[in-house]
Structures are given as structure tokens and as C-alpha cells.
User: What shape does this take?
Amino acid sequence: MGKTLAEKILSEKSGQDAHAGDIVIASVDVAAFQDGTGPLGVRQLQKMHLEKVRAPKSILFIDHAAPSPRKELSNDHMLLRAFSKKTGALLSEVGDGVIHQRLVESHAKPGDVVIGADSHTCTSGALGAFATGMGSTDVAIGMAMGKTWLKVPETFRVEVKGDFPPGVYSKDLVLYLIGMLGADGATYKALEFGGRAIEKMSMEARFVLSNMAVEAGAKTGLIASDRKTKEYLRLRGRIRDWRLLRPDKDAKYERVIEIDASKLVPQIAFPHTVDNTRSVTEAKGVKVNQVFLGTCTNGRIEDLKIAARILRGRQRAPDTRLVVVPASREVYLSAMKSGLLEVFVRAGGIVMGPGCGPCVGVHQGVLGDGEVCLSTANRNFRGRMGNPEGFVYLASPATAAYSAINGEISDPREFFSKGKRKTIRKTVKKGKKR
Amino acid sequence: MILKGKAWKFGDSISTDLICPGRYFHLRSNLPELAKHVLEDADQDFASKMAEGDFVVAGNNFGLGSSREHAPTIIKLAGVSAVLAKSFARIFYRNAINVGLPLLECDTDKIEQDDEIAIDLATGTIHNRTKGIELKAHPLPKAMLNILNDGGLLAHIEKHGDFRLD
Ligand code: SF4
Assistant: This one.
């Protein structure tokens, strides 16, 4: 019987003919902690006198509270650094970037089993890895023993065809899908994205899909490894990490979902759940106090380019703050070299160092009571950005950037429709003359 | 083992951000302090009102969101003896078993705030003593039952030196 990507990888890694529903013990290629979950994991290993790492790549990422805003967190960071020194686990320091972006850039590869003590570990699924989020104890044991137990998930195949209209992106596709499935619509399942639209999609755009798989409850979000994957790894000096990996043609799927990208419109997830998605037209006019461009979902160079294209030569609205956080050092350097950072700063924004930034409410852009943030992140739960009285809306970088200019949630398709762009250009020129 | 206590009712989609808010990130290495804020963004006074042994009773998809194991850990540490919900999010479910917090998947519409509940973990029987009705929880998968019975994942590995799931 044919196999899905999940079944293929877990068969290889467990050494048994694995099918959906089976429980397997799989070897772990990458085990990762971040600074919010790592200290608990490290202490669990200390408790068991198991302070060693057997997973080929065991990595500690300091990204959620980086640089540290308080002494308690500084001490947590010290604990992680000491563990790295003692065990040889790799350390990703303050400024290196968000765990999931760093994993796809430098660590995860097609066919791997990747476990991370962070729910968005599923991001690496876009490289064709079985990547899933777990808790501190699971990852600690996986790191120390080099293996973990997994139930082989059933798979939902998401088949996407058609070309994306201007102003519509993979973020809109995945928000639409989550709205359709519901926040628990794919619980315990693997999502497997494929079809012509996915084949044509850049790796950067694919990561967005896999990143948000967990927001429908899924265990992972897989994409076949193809030429795009190869090129992505080659550009990072990792051609040896590439291999072709596809699901079998006769793989068995629990469900097949077909989406025509050409029919999609920009999506907004309304507070306080990710599946509360509606078309941007329904959100038009919602006043925005802060626009946040960044995170492991949409803080990559392609995202910053799209936003900069809209913001170039323009100004954020006076009552709308613009916070930009590149997802990693690589993204930051690339944005710096190509002048994107200057675009954001000139537009009235602030660019901060690579990391999670305000995403999880620890520091750098916590909302005030009743304030609204339009964010390119993956979550908008109540309290997510540090204040239960705040409101977080989710959107694509294009929608976020265009809304920053208007001070309210706006439809980025307006920017891309010809007539409108001319008027925008004109206003910019006028502004300059004055 | 029979667990007895009062029901504290919550709704659907109780996220780990509501259970263990990100703004207390700095308390994650101070679990007793963190536990004072358990479920704070869902019910501000929950931690001070509940009594040792009580139950958290919720709707669908309890524990969705982040992988923070601190969420089930502080629910347990606060003295909650089990969480009952119509369904649980995947990572939370696994974490709860790993830290030894019992979860019961059942029809929680039949339980109201303040109902007196008794649970037989071995059989998964939930007795609503206030309403005089009995509910049945979906049984745990065998692998998870083994881990829970050993007292969590650390204890399981310590006992067997490896995974012993079947
Ligand atoms: S950017 Fe946000 S969602 Fe991504 S790892 Fe950091 S806190 Fe989590």
C-alpha cells in the first residue's frame, strides 16, 4: 500500500513498516529547545542524571526573550548556556534568530524527524521533515536518548491549484484553510500540502503553511522535497542535505481538501482565535494601534520585501506604530544589504534584533488596554501579546504593511490594482516636494 | 483510585496562553509562583477560589496553542486533580500525561459549575454526585496509560530504562 510523507519518514526512522495509527519508536535527528521551554527540560534531565545528548543535532535557541528583559530570564539563559557547555548541545545565541527559522536555514533536512519544545516546530515540515512540537519532558528524553515515541498520524491532503491573485499570499491560503477546518479540525492529523500552486511556491511561502499547521490542531504540516527545496538548501551550502522525497501516488489519505488559489482573497483572523477568519473586506476600517511584521510565520526576507515594496517612500499613519523584527540573523543581514531596513525606519517604523519580538507578550511591544495589533504572527489568543485586554488580528505582510499606512485594516489588493498605485505614487511625490 | 472534588467550569478553546500567560514568562523557573496565576486569563480568581482536589471542566480543544508543559504542570501544582473536557489539543494531552495530570475526555455538558464529582480513574467512570448521573470517559490509548501509570514520562524511563509502550 502506498505511503504518505508522514508514513514514509516514520517507517524509515523506526525501521518498521509504519502506517497511520501505528505507535512507533523513531530515531530523532534534531531535538530543539527554546528559552521558554528549555530550562524545564534541562532540569528534568538533571533530575534523572541524564545530562547528555544523543540526538545528532541537539540545539538550544535563545529567542523568545532575547535579549533578556529581566533577571529571572537572564538566569534561565545562563542555565541553557551551561548545559550547552557541559553536553555539547549547540547554542543559538541572542540575535541568531527564531528557533524555526534557524532550523530550516541550517539544521532540518528532508526525511528527518525533528522534535522541538515549541508548537511551531512543524515549520520544518516544509522541507519534507517529520517535524512536530512537544513539551519539555518529551524533548528532553528525545534529546538524551536520541529517540521518541510517536503515533503515525492519518493525513489530510491539501491540494492547491491555480495562481494567487496580486495581493494574496500563502498566509491568506493557510488562514482560509484554518478557518475552514477549525482550530481542532486536524487534531492528531498530518497536513500534507501539494498540487501545482504548492510546486510553484517559494520555500519561504511554503514555510508559512507548515508553520501554521498546528493552528488547525495538526501534528505536522508536510510538503514534498523537490527542486525548490534543493535550491533552498544549495543556497545555504547544504546541497548534501537534500534528497527527493515524495508521497506515493497511491498513498491513502483520510481526507482530500481542494483549494483554488485564484479564488482566494486576503484573510484576517479576528480576535481571539486563529480560526476566526474572515475576508479582509469584513475587517476594513478596524483602527490599528500597532502593526507587527515578523515572527517564525512571516519574518522572512520575502515577507520583508513585500512589506517594503508597499512602504517604500511612504509613512505609517500617525497613530499606528510599526514594529519590524527579522526572523533571523540571515534575514536581518539580507534586509540590511538590500536597504529594506532603511525603508522601514524611514516609514516611521522601528526595526528590532532577530528573535520572537512581541509575539508572545514577553517584551518589545506589549499592547495597552483595548489596543489593537495587526500582526503577521500565527496566534491571536487572548493575552497573547502580553495583555488580556488587547486585541490581535492576524494577516499577511502585505495586508499588515498597507494597513500601517492607512492606520486601519485595509485591503492590499487596492495597492496592487493599477489605478490606485498611481494615486499612491502621486501622493508620495507631492509629499517629497513639500 | 477515587478522586473527589468540585467542578470549575470553563468554555471551549482554553488556550495555553489563558492557562499560563506569556506575561509570566519570567516565572517559568519558579513553578510555585507561576501556579498562583493558573488559568488567570480565563477566570481571574480561579487559583484563590479553588480547593485542593477540585476539577477543571471545559469544552472543546482544551489546551490548544503553545507546547509549554508549564500549562499542565501548574494545573497539577495548583492542586487540580484532573481535567475533564470534551476534547484536548494534542501537545497538551501528551504533556499532561508526561507530568502525571489525569485527563478525561467526556460529555462535559452534563456537568455544571460547583457540581460535586467523583472519578474512578481505573475505569474512567465519572460520577456527578450533585446531579446523580454517571459519565464514561474515553479510555486513554495504551501507550499513554502505561506512562501515566508509571507516574509520568521521567518515571517511566527511569523504571524501564527505555520506552515500554505495549
Ligand atoms: S515567533 Fe512567536 S510563534 Fe514563532 S517561535 Fe517565537 S513566540 Fe513562537
Remarks:
- The two ends of chain A are 70 Å apart (CA to CA).
